[in-house]
Amino acid sequence: MSLEQFNNICIIWASLGVTTFILLQFVTAPYGRHIKKGWGPELPNKLGWVLMELPSFAIILYFYLNFSQSSYAQFLNILWLFHYFNRTFIFPLRIRTKGKKMPLTIVLSAIFFNLINAGLNGYFLSHFEQYSSLDFENWMFYLGLTIFVLGFISNQISDSILINLRKPDEVGYKIPNGFLFKYISCPNLLSEIIQWSGFAIMAWNLPATTFLIWTIANLLPRALNHHKWYRDHFKEYPINRKAIIPKIW
Ligand code: NDP
């Protein structure tokens, strides 16, 4: 495949991401608090998370192990693997979702999303990249890495606060407080967007940007839905708290 053909695939895939963003203004992804009947067969929630995220980890690992890459491309792969090791194997063990289910439709669509995104990023980093070790000295590397690390830490703190709202056997919902929850309903989702913005700055290529577009397309509507859900379910929900951008949105 030529670089031009590859770039065209990325542009088509990014356009589908934008289309999905528009669709998600009308359809709420039915998992977690938004799960409802009518979306076909269901799987145990934790198994669903492992199956959904595994392709993203496995595909990048495949490219990392089987192709020669510059040290800069290898470093990008390691950041990706670090994130997805946590999301695939650690996060599902931590969540307190006893007895909860997830529609197979959601699992299959997330597998498809992860196959394409990881496939495009892995393919680029093993076939088209032209990084050199000098890129480790570029200001964009330091900026992107700082944003990536801050996003990861903030995502971990926010997810931990949410997970610990429940005692091990509880399944209900409570109002989260502390950290960035003082300002917004979904700091975990904002942090994930920040993290992949950092990655896109470091990588500075089309597939990483395309993945960022897809991440925003999924998480921005989800944050708006969560925020509305909190307001509908808790009369005492803090009135000044926004959905995802402090003081604005
Ligand atoms: P949520 O905020 O919906 O849930 C996170 C966990 O906390 C779930 O186990 C949830 O339980 C629990 N929880 C959330 N709010 C409460 C509450 N008020 N009271 C009690 N428990 C609560 O996040 P998602 O499930 O959507 O996403 C999980 C992680 O995956 C996030 O870090 C997100 O950024 C990331 N993600 C990334 C995507 C991407 O495109 N890169 C796509 C989707 C997720 P329950 O499941 O029962 O609601």
Short description:
With 249 residues, the chain is mainly alpha-helical. The protein is 65% helix and 2% strand. Strands 1-2 form a two-stranded antiparallel sheet.
Number of helices: 7
- SS content category: mainly alpha
H/E series, N to C? Answer: HEHHEHHHH
Tally of discrete structural domains: 1
Largest sheet: 2 strands, antiparallel
Q: What small molecules are bound in this structure?
A: NADPH dihydro-nicotinamide-adenine-dinucleotide phosphate
- Summed over residues and divided by their number, the pLDDT gives a mean of 97
Question: Into which percentage range does the β-strand content fall?
Answer: under 5%
Work out the number of β strands.
Answer: 2
Secondary structure: helix percent:
55-70%
Low-pLDDT segments: none
Gross morphology is: globular
Strand order in space, largest sheet: 1-2
- Radius of gyration from the alpha-carbon trace, in angstroms: 19 Å
CA distance, first residue to last residue: 42 Å
Subcellular location: Membrane
Protein name: DUF1295 domain-containing protein
InterPro entries: 3-oxo-5-alpha-steroid_4-DH, 3-oxo-5_a-steroid_4-DH_C, SRD5A/TECR
Keywords: Membrane, Transmembrane, Transmembrane helix
Task: Draw up the topology in text.
Blueprint: H1 3-23, E1 42-44, H2 45-66, H3 71-94, E2 101-103, H4 104-127, H5 139-163, H6 187-203, H7 206-233
Antiparallel strand pairs: 1-2
The structure holds NADPH dihydro-nicotinamide-adenine-dinucleotide phosphate (NDP).
